[in-house]
Design a protein that fits this description.
Elements (H helix, E strand, L loop, with lengths): L5 E4 L4 E4 L7 E6 L10 H19 L3 E6 L17 H9 L3 H18 L15 H13 L3 E4 L2 E4 L1 H7 L10 H7 L15 E6 L15 E3 L3 H11 L3 E7 L3 H16 L4 E7 L2 E3 L2 E2 L10 H6 L11 H9 L7 E2 L2 H21 L12 H13 L4 H19 L7 H18 L5 H27 L3 H13 L2 E6 L2 E6 L1
Parallel strand pairs: 3-4, 3-9, 9-10, 11-13
Antiparallel strand pairs: 1-2, 5-6, 6-7, 7-8, 11-12, 14-15
Helix pairs in contact: 2-3, 4-7, 7-8, 10-11, 11-13, 12-13, 12-14, 15-16
């Protein structure tokens, strides 16, 4: 391990060599989803970005604790301190308990993350499971004079904080500008200043999610959860905090203020933010109504799509751009990504068929060095892909006899593609998956026919045993009038 790997620190606004606080250990905290809807393409970008970081850190032999939170309480409609809780609103619309909504969309999110081949975090805590830790953090802020209680709600005193520390250092927001531009909203007159933010909100009588506290029956503010959970699982100071660029203000700015005020020091050494996905130059967001869910992409049922796109095409599409640049979505861009991904996979397929020569005319160590230089330069995945396509040209040249690879160089090239395409970029050959799916489908037809034969012979015990064995294997069999159908549990 050395410090050749650089990352862009949003706090210093420059690339910096990555030096962990306690090598080889790395603490990584990433803001996860608010689970009140099916995941859309905008949710996939931070997931893939920080999966890439996680994979590369582990490849560099760091021991990474990757914490990705789930927001299941306290995120209000206007991303501030008023309005209905996003999850409660969905629960009322769908006539469900709030935690039913949470579980439904957690399941959807995790399913889509599996499809995109993102690795599981080390810990995936929920805000609602850490109410005590959030209350303890509020108590510490009150004790140190940075928070105040009014009518059962508790607010963070931004002006008091700014006397000793600088508020706005991450986002570049100047407090004087906030003072002049902040709009006074209903019920915000209980705040000392309109830009103070809620740490605890007293629940109204109709509010469904509430917890007892010494201030009131209520619920935590949205910003508080990340401070409480990152400190709990990664310590008072940790290495990297990530999330979408849209979270810089107010979420991450408020998080810095809370943690610094409570501890007297900053918690995060490197802040990393991925940029947005846009459609016609406008940020893709559910609130703007211009989103496309991941399921819609995978099935192809959206007016902007001409076909379905595989999860690996979507992952490749995201990796084609540097994580700090915007990506403008279009069906044409997805078609180009599909073509590029297939070209890469075809190259790897050809690589596996190459025969070695006695000598080599290609410098594989130089190609490997350039691949590492791309990743070490703030995870420059598009440059890495350009070098991998350079490798594909070499493969095709060897295949048509214009270049040669010795046994050692051929082995090295195979290892290079395995490491960078599969291990680090997290891509996988979907043709293998499609082959597995076809085999599974054919085997299930045979099993269903065998079971039908047992039923025809009135061998009910055998028929029931087949159904039970399939259930134990995670396959649910449903009898129909004219046969049976199956699905994975």
């Amino acid at each position: 391990m050395d410090n050749r790997f650089t990352i862009y620190n949003s706090l210093s606004r420059k690339k910096e060599p990555f030096t962990p606080l306690h090598p080889p250990f790395v603490g990584l905290y990433v803001c996860g989803p608010t689970v009140y809807s099916d995941p859309h393409l905008g949710h996939a970008r931070p997931a893939v970005t920080f999966d890439l970081l996680y994979r590369y850190l582990m490849h560099l032999e760091y021991m990474v604790r990757y914490v990705r939170n789930i927001t299941d309480v306290g995120h209000l409609e206007n991303d501030a301190d008023e309005g209905e809780d996003k999850i409660e609103k969905k629960a009322r619309l769908e006539h469900l308990e709030p935690m039913e909504v949470v579980q439904k969309y957690i399941n959807s999110f995790l399913k889509n993350m599996e499809q995109l081949n993102t690795l599981h975090p080390s810990i995936e805590p929920r805000a609602s499971g850490h109410i005590i830790e959030q209350q303890q953090l509020i108590e510490e802020l009150i004790k140190k004079g940075y928070a105040y209680e009014v009518n059962g709600s508790v607010y963070f005193d931004v002006l008091k904080y700014n006397e000793k520390y600088k508020y706005g250092k991450l986002s570049g927001r100047v407090l004087e500008e906030l003072q002049s531009n902040t709009r006074t909203l209903d019920k915000q007159d209980e705040k000392r200043n309109p830009f103070d933010f809620a740490l605890w909100k007293k629940a109204t009588p109709e509010h469904l999610m509430r917890w007892p506290s010494r201030w009131s029956d209520g619920y935590p503010g949205w910003h508080l959860e990340c401070s409480a959970m990152s400190i709990k699982y990664l310590g008072e100071v940790f290495d990297i905090h990530g999330g979408g660029m849209d979270l810089q203000f107010p979420h991450h700015e408020c998080e810095i203020a809370q943690s610094t005020a409570a501890q007297g020091k900053e918690s995060v050494r490197y802040w990393m933010h991925n940029n947005m996905i846009t459609i016609n130059g406008q940020k893709m967001a559910r609130s703007l109504g211009n989103f496309i869910t991941l399921d819609q992409l995978f099935i192809g049922n959206h007016p902007l799509l001409t076909q379905a796109y595989s999860p690996m095409t979507i992952r490749f599409f995201l990796l084609q751009a540097h994580y700090r640049s915007t990506i403008d979505f279009s069906n044409e861009a997805l078609l180009a990504a599909e073509k590029g991904f297939q070209k890469l996979m075809k190259g790897i397929e050809t690589l596996d068929k190459l025969k070695p020569s006695l000598t080599s005319t290609i410098d594989i160590p130089s190609l490997r060095k350039k691949c590492y230089e791309a990743m070490d330069d703030d995870l420059n995945s598009p440059v890495l892909l350009s070098y991998l396509f350079e490798g594909v040209k070499y493969i095709n040249s060897v295949s048509d006899g214009t270049e040669k690879l010795s046994i050692n160089e051929l082995t090295s090239l195979k290892d290079l593609f395995k490491v960078f395409v599969f291990d680090i970029l997290g891509l996988k050959d979907e043709n293998i998956s499609k082959g597995d799916e076809k085999l599974t489908s054919e085997l299930m037809k045979i099993i269903i026919n065998l079971r039908q034969g047992a039923k025809n012979k009135k061998e009910w015990a055998e028929s029931d045993k087949i159904r039970e064995d399939l259930k134990n294997a995670g396959i649910i069999l449903k009898d129909l009038k004219d046969g049976a159908e199956w699905e994975m549990e």
